[in-house]
Amino acid sequence: MIRRFTLPEELTHSLFFSEDTVFVNQEERLQWKGDAEYIRFPYEVLYYQNIEASRPWEEPHEAIVWMFTEWRKISGESAQCFAERNLQEALPFMKAGISLFLTCLFWMNNHPVHLENWQEQMDKLSNHPLNIKERATFILLRPGHYSSYIQLKELMTEIEKQFYKLAALQKAVKKRIKE
Known about the structure:
By secondary structure, this protein is mainly alpha-helical. It has helices at 42-48, 61-83, 87-108, 118-122, 132-141, 146-178; strands at residues 2-6, 21-25. The chain has a two-stranded antiparallel ribbon. Helix 2 packs antiparallel against helix 6, helix 3 runs parallel beside helix 6 (146-178) and helix 5 (132-141) packs across helix 6 (146-178). The longest helix is centred in the C-terminal third of the chain and has 33 residues, at 146-178. It is globular and about 55 Å long.
């Protein structure tokens, strides 16, 4: 059942939410479900409201792998829009890509997405690309520009490399512990 929720302060950001309410299907969020709803941060909406739901950032591997696949689709669509110089059509794809990036970034660090004062939140994350604050600020201020797409594309490439490196290290540690 889809319910209306007040937008939590932690998710306040004008790029993603223009109103102070959001609609989420709570029943569908009891387990990780890969779908386009990541744009609206449904798991975080429920988490910040203290409502029972899955917390994919606690065991994010499957979700993040799915997001990298989704990013490739979004990136292709964005590139096509920019190639045709259709900035209005590119904007929804850029918003989706930015939310994927932020979700990957926070979840890779086992944190829910936190958009309010996001720059301060970056200091709490141990795994992130270099100069993340400056680069993310650039993208968030100009989401419909081609240069922001290029920067986002580079950030997604960097975070994917970091994610798989971190996953390999964690696997090696678990293997050593078992021995």
